[in-house]
């Protein structure tokens, strides 16, 4: 196992669970076997929000136990708000949840694995790393 800490974003999990891309699924499987996987509580909430059945919710709840579930620090939301503000000053409107996930990744020294293009815009104003 590597020392790499990877925060897997909602967009990846959705594609992975729906098995939309065999290449993506292989990459996730490799990360799951080789790296430390971190999942913010907000990502769990987004997955449950998008569930189509009680069975899917049950699968998500079981899946939680397999990973390092991370949450905010005392000033995480403040940092996310400031990040959103700084992006807005540059003409970029990025949803607050993505800003929050970027902050959480920074706080836990995680690389972000995502399909969400908003994170490239976030990277223009703050230091985040991608897998």
Automatic annotation (TrEMBL):
Keyword Nuclease attached: yes
Key word Hydrolase present: yes
Span of domain PIN: 4-121
One Pfam entry name: PIN
Gene Ontology molecular function terms on file: hydrolase activity; metal ion binding; RNA nuclease activity
Gene3D superfamilies: 5'-nuclease
Keywords from the UniProt entry: Hydrolase, Magnesium, Metal-binding, Nuclease, Toxin-antitoxin system
Family annotation (InterPro entries): PIN-like_dom_sf, PIN_dom, PINc/VapC_TA_RNase, VapC_family
HAMAP family documented for this protein: VapC_Nob1 (MF_00265)
PANTHER family: RIBONUCLEASE VAPC3
Protein's UniProt name: PIN domain-containing protein
Provenance organism: marine sediment metagenome
């Amino acid at each position: 196992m590597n020392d790499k800490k990877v925060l897997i974003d909602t967009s990846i999990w959705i594609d992975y669970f729906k098995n939309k891309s065999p290449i993506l699924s292989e990459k996730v499987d490799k990360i799951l076997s080789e790296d430390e996987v971190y999942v913010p509580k907000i990502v769990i909430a987004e997955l449950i929000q998008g569930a189509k059945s009680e069975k899917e919710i049950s699968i998500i709840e079981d899946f939680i136990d397999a990973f390092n579930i991370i949450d905010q620090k005392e000033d995480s939301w403040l940092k996310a708000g400031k990040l959103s503000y700084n992006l807005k000053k540059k003409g970029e409107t990025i949803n607050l949840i993505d800003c929050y996930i970027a902050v959480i990744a920074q706080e836990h020294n995680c690389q972000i694995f995502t399909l969400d293009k908003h994170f490239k815009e976030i990277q223009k104003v703050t230091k985040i790393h991608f897998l």
